Amino acid sequence: MSILTAKYFHDEQAAYDYVEAHVWPAGRVCSHCGEVDNSGALKGNSTRIGLYKCYGCRKPFTVKIGTIFEASHVKMHLWLQAIFLMASSKKGFSANQLHRVLGVTLKTAWFMEHRIREAMKPSKKPLMGSNGGAVEVDETFFGRKAGVEVKAAYHHKMKVLTLIDRNSKQSRSIVLDKLNAKEVQSILRKNISPEARLMTDEAAHYRKIGKEFASHEVVNHGVYEYARGDVTTNTAEGFFSVFKRGMKGTYQHCDEKHLNRYMAEFDFRYNHRSGIGIDDATRAAEALKGISGKRLKYRTAN
């Protein structure tokens, strides 16, 4: 049976029940005072689905408060469809396509996608390469920075640095303002354990910081060296391949101020990919776990 036949994709009450089970696994929590399981459902013909009254603070609340769904007029079952479509599409799902599939306006679809990307951002970022694991680091360039004159090399392009932890099989991408040693060093110190084996290409901005890790092993792309034993940045290159095909083929355009959210989306799907045993339904459920505390307003997103 297709996952798309699940009741929570079509029935509003089932959709609320599904979301509540993920947001409140230990019991219903009042979004105003924090009391657990001290509330009751409000009933009546004019009462909206999912509304409860807290017996502690006497205020009404729903599971949407404090999440990416807050103040949204889109039906909950449509939100769940949108999350599944974005989580299950390897190279992304455009706002234009979402607008046509769900029957919402293009503006609404665009805003929904940015809210979902917020949910996909990890709440915890442990150091990578702990216990002597290998961490690949590489950078890529995409699109064009607004208002910057086109020059040779990459100066006019948006810049992304990606870290791949081989042991945990996780990626972490950071949008760079400038690609220089100072910025790269700061990012690596914050995200990689000193115990790690650092693996990069021959770029100069890795030379000094490389000395701060257990080892710094380099492949020289300038002389067409791409692997030497297990020393390679090919995993990061593979990540960039999917990212660029998604950005160019699916999304086509991205403003620099939004690029961090797009990177969170591609990181999320990579970190919950089928190659490490996570199917589409589980991936969508994982995205749903990240909805709390990440409300995004349109004026902030735009």
The total of helices stands at: 10
Encode the helix/strand succession as letters. Answer: HEEEHHHEEEHEHEEEHHHH
For the sheet with most strands, the description reads: 5 strands, mixed
- Count all strands and give the number: 10
Question: What is the CATH class of the largest domain?
Answer: Alpha Beta
Strand order of the main beta sheet, please? 6-5-4-7-8
- According to CATH, the fold-level topology of the largest domain is Nucleotidyltransferase, domain 5
Can you lay out the helices and strands and say which pair or pack?
Blueprint: H1 12-23, E1 39-41, E2 52-54, E3 60-61, H2 76-88, H3 95-102, H4 106-120, E4 134-142, E5 158-165, E6 170-176, H5 181-191, E7 197-201, H6 207-210, E8 215-219, E9 227-228, E10 231-232, H7 234-251, H8 259-271, H9 280-288, H10 298-301
